[in-house]
Amino acid sequence: MNDQANSVDARYEAAAPAELSSWNRHDTTWMLGLFGTAIGAGTLFLPINAGLGGFWPLVILALLAFPMTFFAHRGLTRFVLSGREGADITEVVEQHFGIKAGALITLLYFFAIFPILLIYSVGLTNTVASFLEHQLHITPPPRALLSFVLILGLLAVVRCGEQAIVKAMSLMVYPFIVALLFLAVYLIPHWNGGILTTASQVPAPSALLHTLWLAIPVMVFSFNHSPIISAFAVDQKRRYGANAEQRSSQILCRAHLLMVVMVLFFVFSCVLTLSPEQLAEAKAQNLSILSYLANHFSNPAIAFAAPLIAFVAISKSFLGHYIGASEGLKGLIVKSGKRPGAKALDRIVAAFMLVVCWIVATLNPSILGMIEAVGGPVIAAILFLMPMYAIRKVPAMARYRGQASNVFVTLVGLVAISAVIYSLTA
């Protein structure tokens, strides 16, 4: 097996320089797919959560946004690339750390991502039902029927294969980017200083550090696209072989620059429009920034566009998280000793996802936010700490040792995990 993998890598190494000479459509599709997984419904709450801390914490978070997200996801990509040809994250963990560790990480990986998929199922159903009722003035169908049709529609895209998922997500990114830009520009005439009123109030160092400590997880998880990183790395290694790390880093860099510029422009436009008191009111009402702005301006265009933007945001994030959740479930099934064929395994996973997502979306439980919060530390550990540990312990990753970014990623991971646990227990 190793000889075969080495011959494949050698073949790619010979061909890769020509392929790396120019950016291609495949790279653009993945760049937008990464953007699509990361930038979803959470972006619509980010201006509220990030803006409440005041001007200076927001500025510091804006400066940290790119290095926090890029270095962490690059580390996880490098970790998956360090495995044998075609191995996903669950197989790479087993390869480097043993069968027991592989089974544990696979279990944690699945239960960290799958609840987010359930949350998106509920959010999608609520968004469409509200849109039909309030904007189109149509009585929505029974919740069980509506949720089934919506989830089945998304799984129809899933059944077309991983490349179809990434392509669908990349296509949905375009209207989302246009919508964010439109809203951010639309708000410019309404800028009234907003958060700038707090700029003259420089917080004490202890208060500033406390605010940043609690705000970092918000920023980290708003740009998180770890569920699709494994599939991304596997595809890059299949396509670029020995030069996969170089091209992966280029794609990640461009994807994160797009994320940071787009989202921060949207965030600052919102917080410059609304006062800190209004941001607090939006948080108390548990509204997304779009819903609050629609009510604030009584603007029919925003009221109509908000649910459509949310629909696109949730749909593309659902597809991206499905890749990670299905990967984890397949790993659990295989590690349990059962080894069905590839097509049978795909059908089993798709059927399980459909049934569970449909039931949860129909029941519309209120505990999903807590489940997501519990999964937060696990995602942070897998995204930030596991690759850094592997760099120190795994010979295949030894060439990445001694980089300052490793220390930075480790510190951010520890801060994010401790802050999430503190928020849950406080």
TrEMBL record:
It comes from the Bacteria. It is a multi-pass membrane protein. One of its GO terms (molecular function) is amino acid transmembrane transporter activity. Keywords: Amino-acid transport, Cell inner membrane, Cell membrane, Membrane, Symport, Transmembrane, Transmembrane helix, Transport. One of its GO terms (cellular component) is plasma membrane. The chain crosses the membrane at residues 30-48, 54-76, 97-123, 143-161, 173-191, 211-234, 255-274, 301-323, 344-361, 367-386, 407-425. It catalyses: L-serine(in) + H(+)(in) = L-serine(out) + H(+)(out). Pfam families: Trp_Tyr_perm. It is found in: Cell inner membrane. This is HAAAP family serine/threonine permease. It comes from Pseudomonas jessenii.
